[in-house]
Structures are given as structure tokens and as C-alpha cells.
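Slides due. Your pick:
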Amino acid sequence: MASLDAKCKGLVLRSTDVGDNDKLLTILTDEYGKITVSAKGARSLKSRFMPVSQQFAYGEFTFTARGDFKWLKDATLAESFFSVRRDLPCLALACYVASVTEQLALENQPDRELLRLTLNTLYMLCGDKYPLDHIKAVYEMAAASVGGFTPETDYCGNCGKSEGLSYMDIVGGVCLCRECVKSLFSATEMPVTVMPISPEVLDAVRYVCTPDVKNIFSFKIPQHEAEELSDLSEKYLLAQLDCGFKTLSFYHEVKN
């Protein structure tokens, strides 16, 4: 079987030690989607692959492919996102972002929008303009949207009305009006998957899920609503993906 060389830009989502000196890299690329590449000798301090084999390394990668196997041939580092390592909560959140992106990304299917979102999130984490929970909430809702799980926020998922949207069904991915919630559920039967949503948070969700917004992080809401958005975004993403993340549990352990 003939070998094929390919070049692409990509972000290292995961870096796993293999053997005595090698690394196995999970990379989200612009041209090939999520790929797994073996970096021979990358654990050596003298290796030219060491800088580009770290988690969060972004750059240009040249690899040789033979069948389903890929080997790193050359790489140039463009950004290390080293500042996400400035403290444990920030690093924990960056690892969670990488975990979610890896879960959403598909093998050998380009997803430039997901790559762009992840890069922008890491850039935000490197700065101090926004609180960590704000960055986390925006990323979670945007990642769900990019992954094909955009919530319906314009109409009630039960009656179709656009007025009085006060709840979100995080499993169904729809908003519900107050009247429908009253008719569907009693106060004691309200499922935990139907969450209250304030007008400010509803507007924030709409903004984050709007295609082609230049900076989805650039909005401010009051503290109480910010906490509501944080809780909603996390639970919505987990419900849509139907899975949990150890990196998320660790973030909650260390952030306070």
C-alpha cells in the first residue's frame, strides 16, 4: 500500500504517551477533521516534535498516511496557548473544552466551525477579560449548536407561540411557554429536565447560537443571570450529548 503525505493546520486535543519515547496525538484539523497521528520520539527533550506534541498546541502538521495509520513527518508550532496553564482552574477548564471538542468532532470529516470555536475559546482563556464560568457557558452552548443541537428559542415547542417563553426542555431542545408548562406539569411533577429561563438568559442563548457572530463572548449579563446561564448551558450540553466528562468534574472540584 502506497504512502501519502498530507499537510494541514490543526489543534492537539489530546496527547498520550506511548512506549518509551513516542506520543499519540489526537488532532482536530481544518482539512481532515479529527485524526490520530503517531509522533515518534516526541517525548525526548531533543525532539523537534516535542513543542507541537503538547495538548493545546496549534500549528501546521505534515503527516504520512498509510491506510488508517498516520505518522508525524513535520510540524511548525503557531500557538501553544501556554497561558491556560497559569492556574489549575483555567487549565482544568481548557482540558474540559478539549474533551468536549473531541467528543463532537468526527474522524476524517472537516469541521472548521468547531475548530474556530475551540481556538477562540482557548484565546479567551489565555486572557482575563471574562470570568471562567462565562467562557465555559458560552463555549458549551455554542459547541452544542455547532454540533447540531441548536435549541429552538423562537417558539414554544408545544403550542408554537412566541410569547411567554419561560422554560427550556434541555432534552427536547425546545423552549416552553408558561401556559404550556402549567398545563403539562403540576408543581410537584416538574421534571428536572425542564429548567426556568429568564428573558436575559434566553437572549444570551439566542446571541450565542446566532451563526457568524464575530465574538460570541462579548456580552454581559447580571450576576444572577450569569449563574443561570452557566447552569443551563452545562446541563443542556450534557443532556444533548448524553454523556459526562471527568474533566468537567475536575473543573468543579478545583475552581473554588
